[in-house]
Amino acid sequence: MSTTFEAIKKLAALGQVRISEHGYDELVEDSIPIRDILIGIETATVVEDYPAFAKGPAVLVLQFDSKKRPIHVVWGIPKGAVSPAVLVTAYRPDTARWNNDFTGRRN
Fold first, then answer.
1. How many domains does the chain contain in total?
2. Does 17 map to a domain?
3. Is residue 105 part of a domain?
4. What is d(CA 13, CA 21) in angstroms, rounded to the nearest whole number?
5. Over the chain, what is the mean pLDDT?
């Protein structure tokens, strides 16, 4: 399990979440309710882990909305900080770019 994602889940449980401007735009564009993101974080699956990302540790996870549709969410924690969990972006994964279970990229 990703230590970054474990920290993000703890922060989310405490309500210490911020949505980036880009993240908000993507949620609106793909009609993804933030409620579905916050509820789905507990059962999310880590797809890619970026512990040494330049802007702070981040992780790409697969979550599902209330209608069981897949969502990829990139969560991060600002570099040098321990809070908040930042929703960097969220989108509906493209079947042409991801494998059937949305956990691996197609070549």
1. 1
2. yes
3. no
4. 21
5. 96
Q: Cα(27)–Cα(36) distance, rounded to whole angstroms?
A: 11
The pTM of this model reads: 0.94
Q: How far apart are CA 16 and CA 1, in angstroms?
A: 21
Asked if the model's pLDDT at residue 1 lies above 80, the reply is no
Residues 77, 91: Cα–Cα separation, whole Å: 19
Residue 104 is assigned to a structural domain of this protein: no
- SS3 sequence of the chain: CCHHHHHHHHHHHCCCEEECHHHHHHHHHCCCCHHHHHHHHHHCEEEEEECCCCCCCEEEEEEECCCCCEEEEEEECCCCCCCCEEEEEEECCCCCCECCCCCCECC
What's the average model confidence in pLDDT over 11-19? Answer: 97
The whole-number pLDDT of residue 107 equals: 78
Give me the pLDDT at residue 35, please.
95
Does 106 fall in a domain? no
| Listed residue (106, 107, 30, 10) closest to 70, CA to CA | 30
Range of the structural domain that residue 31 is part of: 3-91
